[in-house]
Amino acid sequence: MNPEILEGFLQASLPMSLMATAAGSLLGLIVGMIPGMTISTGIIIVLPVTFVLDPVISVSLLLGLYVGGMMGGSFAAVLLNIPGTPSASATAIDGYPMSVRGEAGLALGTAIIASFIGGLFSFFCLYFIAPLLAEVALQFRAPDLFSLVFFGLTIICSFAAKSLVKGLLSAVIGLMLVTVGMDPVMGTARFTFGEVNMMGGIHFLTAMIGLFAVPQLIENLISSQAGQSDERAQSRIISLLPNLKQLSRMIKPVSIGSITGAFLGILPGVGGPIAAFISYDYTKKLSKNQQDFGKGCIEGIAAPESANNAVTGGALIPMMTLGIPGDPVTAILIGALMIHGLSPGPLLFMERGDFAYSVIFAFFWANIFNLIIALSALRLLVKLLATPKALLMPSIAILCVVGSYSLRNNFFDVYVMFFFGLLGLAMRWLNMPVVPLLLALVLGGQLEEHLRVALTGSRGDVSIFFTSPVSLLFLILSMVSIIWSFYSARKGKKDG
Amino acid sequence: MSTIKKMLCQFMALLYIIFFAATASAGFPDRAIEFIIPFGAGGGADIEGRLLAKEMSKVLGVPLTPINKPGAGGAITYTYLVNSKPDGYTIGWNSTSVLTTTNLGNTDFDYDAMDHIGRVEYQPQPFVVKADAAWKSFKDFVSDCRNNPNTYKIANSGTGSATHTAAIAVMNAINCQVIHLPKGIKGRNASVLSGEAHAMVAPLTGAVRLAKAGKLRILAVPTSKRNAVIPDVPTMAELGYDAELDLFRGLSVAPGTPQSIKDKLFEAMSKAANSKAFKGLAKKKGFTVDPMGPKAFTAHLRSENTKVKNIFKSAGLYKSK
Description:
The structure holds 2 protein chains of 2 kinds. Helix content of chain A is 75%, strand content 1%. Chain A is mainly alpha-helical. Chain A has one domain (3-228, 246-495). In chain A, strand 1 (181-182) and strand 2 (189-190) form a beta hairpin. The radius of gyration of chain A is 22 Å and the shape is globular. Classes of the chains: A mainly alpha, B alpha/beta. The interface between A and B is large, with 54 and 59 residues. Chain B: InterPro entries: BUG, Bug_dom1. Chain B: Pfam families: TctC. Chain B: This is Tripartite tricarboxylate transporter substrate binding protein.
């Protein structure tokens, strides 16, 4: 074996490194659970500490936080219907209904196991095929990225199956809201009405907090005033861990999620939310019991959870081999490593192979510790549900305000959050699905940017989207995705 | 219950004492200072700014709290700064963006709406191609580009950003028409490596590592003097072209801040800039620490502002909002 690999493994397995991984994982879990606190925020909090620590220990801490944060985001999504991180949005679709049914323990257990497998899978990708995959991903140009994001948007059709008009309207509202702020290509202001704060655009998480949390809070308030019994507080925790039969149901979604997540993680700037939604959608399409999705089924949790944790290892691949970040967190990680004079990139494996491998093994340990810590914290966290709503709901309301402020330290975002709260309420009254709007908000910016950059490059020639094989492939996949959604929706209607 | 109340009273009393003790001393600074970073967490501005803030707080004896207020190419931070109290407790970590975002028309004021403490560091923005590009020298590119106008794609970090501004300046100087691709900070390097863009203009710190790894080649720097980090790369001035636009960073405060406070801040800024930690970071990343006082910096900003204005006018970007 390459002595550098062994040296890297030993460095990452020192007691201090392992302790840092565990601490990071726990912190990540907490940060991920608080709405409005992203993994990026968590890393920024501990960043000053890493300046004085040994590089390997710093990396262990940061990677622990990265992996733990992904997990924590899902906890909040399942327990409170408020995804702690954007990547956990898809988990809320099936996680929260399970939690309402009193199966929060099972939902979380599924999420933890799926996350672990997804994370481990991406570790092996990172270890074995990192350089190979990085080269492939680097070949993605603007037209290809556009088609990929477009493919991501076609998922809207599956969420709009009940009423296509309402689903598409919801997506269009989202796409329109994305245009507020700076024009991504011309750099000038759009729809800001002279308000400088509008120029920063609408932060996706601000919108998400408003859309998910505010209607939830209002609904709870109404039900408690009406004197309805507090069903969640009384619900029993049926089981904590999935049994063998349930585990076997997870095999397919986890395989889809892990592969999708690891590959999409490698593409710079694509990130967890898209991977989670795509794998959710495909698991649903390939499933025999589609009608269960959205009502709380473990497949609907396993797929996005394995995907969003597989993204973490995937995103480390271009970071380690090319110095190109795959998502905002790896961008910060590059910065953190540079403070120590270790610049990720092609030179790192040549000059400091031992360190490069210690990063890879620190990621391995982060996944192990995340499993242990999440499982041991599970019982405690499920008890959160038993907290009286009179205490829980005001705390969440406060977190919503603090969270939307602290994203960009701008109080204007708090008003934006409340605006989205009202929008979410209106959409609920109109029975309009929120997910298409959310998807449009996540993907709309990238969609526009890649489309316009691609067309700038080709001087307005649209044929580039069909002449590039990668782009063509994703466009064909988009067609398949749309036709499939309609076909299965019709079949579902006939059967029902 | 009563013990809790008692403790609360004691705590309030303590806060009261601390508060009064603080306001009683007249000297600046006697409380934490906000250090506003106009860009998001993890970028160059953030990492360099946070370290400077840490070193400055050692000199001033109060914490400098770094706060990221990203958005609109820095316009949100600069607007916040212009409207802040002129007491020195809000400092902005400016950059070339103070000239670009204002001249794009993202704010209704110019760079001179703030008081400037000084410059801390700068770095050139070189013209970079892929290592296996056919152009071995900048001359090769110039002649090829003149023969094939509107063909080559030059990546930058965003329309109206410092890299885009420098790219326009370089293309104006060599009299060549190209397609500017706003690929963003994350996509810029990748687009050159993938061949989507034929070249890019990037901050030195963003390109130097890939260049040293043999993946990219730096053809020229739009400066008048060679840079110590890349001593072999010819300058635009040497090649006979007039194009110079650095990426600088420095400190600004609200307009009307008392001179004595500005002096104190400048002193702390210089000490922090010359600290071992900050100089170490500069060496690792490849930027140049070169503190400049308020007078020199304001004069520098004035001349650079005219330059940016003219570049934007030539490209139809001036106040294009």
